[in-house]
């Protein structure tokens, strides 16, 4: 983009232009909110038996409490689905399932938790978040990629990991008033890293998200310490399950490996709108069905080409634009640049989490809820046009086609929507990577 174009984009608009822009943007936000809430209300009045995941999880807890092995579906009452979580979670989930409260009232509990997620998510700006910012984050949590619709319909415990993710991000993305990266909040960041590691242990395939912590504006040693704490926290439930629940852990391994006959299998290739399944379908279409090596190679190529490489190139382009400090390595320059631009570094950290999560090989429909939480932090700081496009693509359009009865399951509609949203965010970052700091300086 030329200097003239860049300057024109960031010139202060006249009061009249700003007023008109704010008016139509407010109208779009209101329309999007109506579609999102209308879609959720439409689901609520349908006479269908939802909440199957909640029933499975609580049936597993009940079976365990009754001395039965919950990884054998025959021991679970009222379901043919298998329990996917580690053995230690059976004790963790027991208070949630006590008395049947969650099974009977999850339809009222889950929306409250989703709103709580939006309220807990941190802002990246220097000033206190406005009511508009908070409303946008809550709206994204409820409606982006219709992720929460699937959580609500299935009663999936992704709502719990979402709450923990929001708390972890608030701990990790906190800055002091002076923006100093080395402040007294490092113990809080350690707690956030540990909590994020625990969250990824619920769904093991999202473990790579922890690598995004390297983009935090901290000295390299501290960043590596955060990643180490997060990795240990990820491994801890596995170690506890193996050591304290050896028989159940063996059953969990059998269930995850598909070695228990005649029951539902939790599998990487189970129907879901991920890049891996898109690669498998492409290989089937090309006549290479059944060749897992070709499928995984295609999946890796797609993830790198569509998400990870464009993100990495965009970051490196910004870092390389900085003068070389006495022949320092590229990694050292990256560390220095992130510490010199702490608020932009925070944005990059969340963006990296979004990219890594989106690239997961098993991205079930309900998992788009957590993806929406990362997006909710990023969209608040978008300029008017980019925000309008994101709202239309990521919230209004999926809510509308859901209301019209279009089937998401078995298609890649959600994946296409999420990829488009990723590129909206990426193109905005490439156009003006340090806009967040520029806007902060104007507000002071």
Number of strands: 0
| Weakly predicted, low-confidence segments | 1-12
- How would you state the average pLDDT, rounded? 89
Q: What is the N-to-C order of secondary-structure elements (H for helix, E for strand)? A: HHHHHHHHHHHHHHHHHHHH
Oligomer: single chain
- State the end-to-end distance: 28 Å
Helix-strand category: mainly alpha
Percent helix, as a range, is: 55-70%
The gyration radius over C-alpha positions equals: 22 Å
Shape: globular
Concise overview:
The chain is built from 20 helices and no strands. The protein is an all-alpha fold.
Give an overview in words.
By secondary structure, the protein is mainly α. It is built from 20 helices and no strands. The longest helix is centred in the N-terminal third of the chain and has 31 residues, at 15-45. It starts with a helix and ends with a helix. The model is unreliable at 1-12 (pLDDT under 50).
Write the SSE topology:
Elements: H1 3-10, H2 15-45, H3 52-65, H4 88-92, H5 94-97, H6 101-120, H7 131-143, H8 147-154, H9 158-172, H10 186-202, H11 220-244, H12 246-256, H13 275-285, H14 292-320, H15 330-340, H16 342-358, H17 368-379, H18 384-403, H19 413-431, H20 435-443
């Amino acid at each position: 983009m030329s200097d003239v174009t860049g300057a024109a984009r960031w010139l202060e608009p006249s009061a009249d232009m700003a007023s008109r822009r704010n008016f139509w943007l407010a109208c779009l936000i209101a329309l999007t909110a109506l579609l999102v809430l209308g879609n959720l209300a439409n689901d609520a009045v349908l006479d269908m038996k939802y909440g199957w995941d909640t029933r499975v999880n609580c049936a597993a807890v009940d079976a365990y409490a009754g001395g039965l092995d919950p990884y054998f579906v025959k021991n679970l009452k009222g379901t043919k689905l298998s329990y996917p979580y580690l053995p230690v979670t059976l004790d963790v989930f027991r208070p949630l399932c006590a008395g049947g409260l969650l099974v009977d009232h999850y339809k009222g509990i889950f929306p409250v938790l989703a709103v709580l997620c939006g309220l807990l998510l941190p802002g990246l700006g220097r000033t206190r978040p406005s009511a508009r910012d908070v409303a946008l984050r809550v709206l994204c949590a409820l409606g982006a990629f219709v992720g929460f619709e699937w959580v609500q319909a299935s009663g999936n415990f992704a709502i719990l990991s979402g709450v923990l993710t929001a708390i972890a991000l608030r701990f990790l993305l906190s800055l002091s008033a002076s923006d100093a990266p080395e402040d007294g909040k490092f113990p809080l960041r350690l707690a956030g890293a540990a909590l994020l590691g625990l969250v990824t242990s619920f769904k093991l395939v999202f473990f790579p998200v922890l690598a995004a912590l390297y983009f935090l504006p901290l000295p390299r040693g501290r960043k590596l310490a955060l990643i180490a704490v997060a990795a240990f926290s990820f491994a801890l439930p596995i170690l506890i399950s193996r050591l304290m629940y050896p028989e159940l852990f063996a059953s969990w391994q059998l269930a995850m490996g598909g070695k228990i006959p005649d029951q539902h299998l939790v599998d990487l290739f189970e129907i879901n709108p991920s890049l891996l399944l898109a690669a498998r379908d492409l290989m089937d279409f090309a006549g290479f069905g059944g060749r897992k090596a070709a499928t995984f190679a295609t999946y890796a190529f797609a993830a790198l080409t569509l998400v990870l490489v464009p993100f990495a190139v965009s970051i490196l382009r910004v870092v390389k634009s900085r003068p070389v400090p006495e022949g320092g390595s590229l990694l050292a320059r990256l560390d220095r640049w992130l510490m010199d631009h702490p608020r932009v570094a925070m944005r990059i950290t969340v963006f990296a989490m979004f990219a890594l999560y989106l690239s997961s090989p098993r991205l079930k429909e309900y998992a788009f809820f957590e993806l929406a939480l990362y997006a909710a932090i990023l969209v608040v700081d978008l300029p008017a046009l980019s925000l309008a496009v994101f709202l239309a693509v990521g919230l209004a359009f999926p809510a509308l086609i859901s209301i019209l009865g279009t089937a998401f399951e078995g298609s890649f509609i959600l994946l296409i929507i999420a990829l488009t949203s990723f590129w909206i965010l990426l193109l905005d970052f490439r156009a003006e990577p340090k806009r967040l700091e520029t806007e902060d300086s104007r507000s002071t």
